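[recover] target loaded
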């Protein structure tokens, strides 16, 4: 059974940093595309960043480029999202997602598995 468990969310002031983690189990981690999505109240879920675990290729939404970094620890089957220079508009529930064949990386419907989410709140 595939499980994705996020952690690391919290409240921070604008300009601060947080690191999210996603522990994966139940499948061959390094054969998937792993991603972070976020959803703010009243808005659609949007892709934040993704990494193809075998190639190590990563992608970012324009809104987070230069501020967020996605990374992985294959030995621990764990995905990370380092978020720096946080802005109030980054406030959302952040979800980890995984899929075996994901094209394009930002398509929410391409991902088979989802975590329960972790809340990130950025105050001004």
């Amino acid at each position: 059974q595939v499980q994705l468990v996020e952690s690391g969310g919290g409240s921070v002031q604008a300009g601060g940093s947080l690191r999210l983690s996603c522990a994966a189990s139940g499948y061959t981690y390094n054969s998937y595309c792993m991603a972070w999505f976020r959803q703010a109240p009243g808005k659609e879920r949007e892709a934040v960043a993704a990494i193809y675990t075998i190639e190590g290729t990563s992608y970012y939404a324009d809104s987070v480029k230069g501020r967020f970094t996605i990374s992985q620890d294959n030995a621990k089957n764990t995905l990370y999202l380092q978020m720096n220079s946080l802005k109030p508009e980054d406030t959302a529930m952040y979800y980890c997602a995984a899929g075996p064949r994901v094209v394009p990386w930002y398509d929410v419907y391409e991902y088979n598995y989802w975590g329960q989410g972790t809340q990130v709140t950025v105050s001004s």
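[recover] notes: The CA atoms of residues 91 and 121 lie 5 Å apart.
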